[in-house]
Design brief:
- With 200 residues, the chain is of the alpha/beta class.
- The strands form 2 sheets. The chain has an 8-stranded parallel beta barrel with strand order 1-2-3-4-5-6-7-8. A two-stranded antiparallel ribbon has the order 9-10.
- Helix 1 runs parallel beside helix 8.
- Bound molecules: ligand LARABZUK.
- The ligand O=C(O)c1ccccc1NCC(=O)[C@H](O)[C@H](O)COP(=O)(O)O binds next to strand 2 and strand 8.
- It holds the Pfam family PRAI.
- GO terms for molecular function: phosphoribosylanthranilate isomerase activity.
C-alpha cells in the first residue's frame, strides 16, 4: 500500500489517532507555521506513539535541527545549497528532502537522487497551493522513494494515488481548522488509500 504521512500534528490526541492509521507522523517545529509546536513536543509525542515521528523545519542550521529533538526523521522544507546537501551525508539520520514541483528544480531533484538515499517530498512551491501533478508524475517514475504532498484532500486524493508515489503527505486536507486534525477525515482518507490498493 502507498505509505501515508500525516503532517502538522500539534495535539497529542491527534498524534495517537495518526499513529493508528499513518506510517509517519509529521510535527512542524518552525515558527513560520500556524501549526508550530516546540521541538520538545516531539519527545512527548514519542512516548505515546509507535510510528516514526518527523521534525519538519523550514529555517535553521541542519546540525541544530538534527539535535533539537528525538525525531526519527528530519524534513528540511526548503531548497538546500550544495554545501548543505554534502553536510546531510555526514549524519546518521533519516531525512525527508523537499523539492518544489516545478521544472526549474529538475536538476536539484537529480542532484538529491544521485547524491543521497533519502526520502524525497515533491510539494507545491508555496504552502497552500496545489502541487504540479504533471511534473510530479515524471519525477515519481525516476526515483522509488518519492512522496507527494501539497493540497491532498478527500475529494482529489485519487489524482495523487494514480501517480503511484511511494508515499503521500497530507496536512491541511485532514484538518478541522488550522492546526487541529479532523479524526473522521483522517480515517476516511486512509480508507481511500486502502480501497485504491484493492482496485489495482
Ligand atoms: O504545515 C505547515 O504550516 C508548514 C509550514 C511550512 C513548511 C511546511 C509545512 N508543512 C509541511 C506539510 O504539512 C507537509 O509536509 C506537506 O506540505 C503537505 O501539506 P498540505 O498541502 O497542507 O497537505
Amino acid at each position: 500500500m502507498i505509505k501515508i504521512k500525516f503532517c502538522g500534528i500539534s495535539h497529542i490526541e491527534d498524534a495517537i489517532v495518526a499513529s493508528n492509521y499513518a506510517d509517519l507522523i509529521g510535527v512542524v517545529t518552525d515558527p513560520v507555521s500556524p501549526r508550530f509546536v516546540k521541538p520538545e513536543f516531539i519527545d512527548i509525542v514519542k512516548n505515546f506513539v509507535n510510528k516514526p515521528v518527523v521534525n519538519v523545519k523550514v529555517k535553521g542550521k541542519i546540525n541544530d535541527i538534527v539535535n533539537e529533538s528525538k525525531a526519527d526523521y528530519v524534513q528540511i522544507h526548503r531548497v538546500l545549497d550544495m554545501e548543505e546537501i554534502e553536510d546531510i551525508l555526514s549524519y546518521n539520520k533519516k531525512f525527508i528532502l523537499y523539492v518544489p514541483s516545478s521544472e526549474k528544480y529538475y536538476s536539484y531533484f537529480k542532484t538529491i537522487v544521485n547524491k543521497t538515499n533519502h526520502l524525497i517530498l515533491i510539494d507545491s512551491e508555496k504552502k497552500g497551493e496545489k502541487v504540479n501533478l504533471e511534473v510530479s508524475k515524471i519525477w515519481i517514475k525516476e526515483y522509488d522513494k518519492v512522496g507527494i504532498g501539497g493540497g491532498i484532500t478527500l475529494n482529489n486524493i485519487e489524482e495523487f494515488l494514480s501517480l503511484n508515489p511511494y508515499w503521500i503527505d497530507i496536512s491541511s486536507g485532514i484538518e478541522k481548522y488550522k492546526s487541529k486534525k479532523d479524526h473522521d477525515k483522517m480515517i476516511r482518507i486512509v480508507e481511500k488509500v486502502k480501497e485504491w490498493k484493492s482496485i489495482l
